[in-house]
Amino acid sequence: MREAPGFSLILITFACSLVIRGIAMIFWGSEPRSLPYFFRSTPIGIAEAILNPQSVWVIVSTGLMATGLFFFFRHTITGKAFEACCVSTFLASLMGIKTGRMGFLAFALATSLTALAGAVMSPLTFPHVGIGIHFSVKGFTAALIGGIDRIEGVIVGGLALGILEALAVGFISSGYKDIIALVVLIALLTIRHQGLLGGAEAGQV
């Protein structure tokens, strides 16, 4: 399947996600689950806002992952090989980079970071078998806002999307919170698909 056209890979990935979701539903059911916080403690008051203690874990882990990724891509040979493969797998192979191995490592790195993010986020949500689509749309929107080729841009995009959702809850209704990501996603794909902070080449990678 590695040599299949891009659209075919998208369909294959979507089909695999449906299969995995069905298997998960057989073992764990379709009802949302409630998971405990890592540590029980009182909420943290900042000015007039209340910060959930579990949110501290989310903020710290996000900072650590972002710092690690930035160092990895900017200061390691493997990270630079990843970036070369993103630009052109053909040219990267001509330079002696094993593109198949890079693809496997990229998949392993992405799933590991996703597992870590899921672990720290689960106590703040009610996990269920279909929650992946929900967060995928928001994650993809945040990446497009900040420029999908820039780590710092993705973080800024995530914060911007979170602020927009919070404003929607405060000034409109909580029922419109999840619609914000879709509206922003459609607008970006229509107007500026390389992101607000991304370069002109970001949409081409």
Q: Report the structural category.
A: mainly alpha
Distance between the termini: 20 Å
Major sheet size, sense and barrel closure: 2 strands, antiparallel
Q: What count of helical segments does DSSP give? A: 8
Can you tell me the residue ranges where pLDDT is under 50 for at least 5 consecutive residues?
200-205
Domain module tally: 2
Task: Give descriptors for this structure.
globular; two-stranded antiparallel ribbon; 67% helix; 2 domains
Your description of this structure?
By secondary structure, the chain is an all-alpha fold. It folds into two domains: 31-128, no CATH class; 129-205. Helices cover 67% and strands 3% of the residues. The chain is built from eight helices and two strands, in the order αββααααααα. A two-stranded antiparallel sheet has the order 1-2. A hairpin with a 2-residue loop joins strand 1 (44-46) and strand 2 (49-51). Helix 2 packs across helix 3 (77-87) and helix 3 packs across helix 5 (99-121). The longest helix is centred in the N-terminal third of the chain and has 23 residues, at 6-28. The two termini are 20 Å apart. Residues 200-205 have low confidence and may be disordered.
Task: Describe the structure concisely for a colleague.
With 205 residues, the chain is mostly helical.
Secondary-structure topology with pairs:
Layout: H1 6-28, E1 44-46, E2 49-51, H2 53-75, H3 77-87, H4 89-94, H5 99-121, H6 131-146, H7 151-171, H8 177-191
Antiparallel strand pairs: 1-2
Helix pairs in contact: 2-3, 2-5, 3-5, 6-7, 6-8, 7-8
